[in-house]
Design goal:
The chain has a single domain, classed as Orthogonal Bundle (Arc Repressor Mutant, subunit A). The chain is built from 6 helices and 3 strands, in the order H-H-H-E-H-H-E-E-H. Helix content is 65%, strand content 12%. 13% of the residues are buried. A hairpin with a 2-residue loop joins strand 2 and strand 3. It has 115 residues and is α+β, with helices and mostly antiparallel strands. It has a 3-stranded antiparallel sheet. The protein has helices spanning 10-23, 26-33, 35-47, 52-57, 63-75, 94-114; strands at 50-51, 79-84, 87-92. The two termini are 17 Å apart.
């Protein structure tokens, strides 16, 4: 049986941390993993474009809280918004979200295959 050697040296921990910083968009995953924001993404992915009023009606949080969550998701490309007259429509960028997960998975596979 082959011995498993844990990564315990400072060098290895630093190397691992650096790899994650270089290859994983931590801020993006933080944005989409928040429970309220992930529920917003599910709603928008299943319903298509909606106004802030329509979105807020589906959640118990105050409209301003929903707006801040949508702005945060927009900052990382998980949702997009467009103005139509006086209304702002939001939609989930499902292709961009899937692409980000696939990119991260590909990076992880490459590292695992090098071990």
């Amino acid at each position: 049986m082959q011995e498993v050697i844990p990564i315990t040296t400072q060098y290895d921990a630093d190397k691992c941390r650096q790899w994650i910083q270089d290859n994983v968009d931590i801020d993006f995953f933080h944005a989409v993993s928040d429970p309220a924001r992930s529920q917003l993404l599910v709603l928008l992915a299943s319903t298509g474009e909606q106004t802030i009023g329509e979105i807020a009606a589906a959640f118990p949080q105050n409209r301003s809280v929903i707006s801040r969550h949508l702005d945060y998701l927009n900052r990382f490309g998980a949702v997009s918004r467009r103005k139509v007259g006086r209304e702002v429509l939001y939609k989930a960028n499902t292709e961009a979200i899937v692409a980000k997960f696939e990119q991260t998975t590909d990076h992880m596979k490459a590292v695992i295959h090098k071990l």
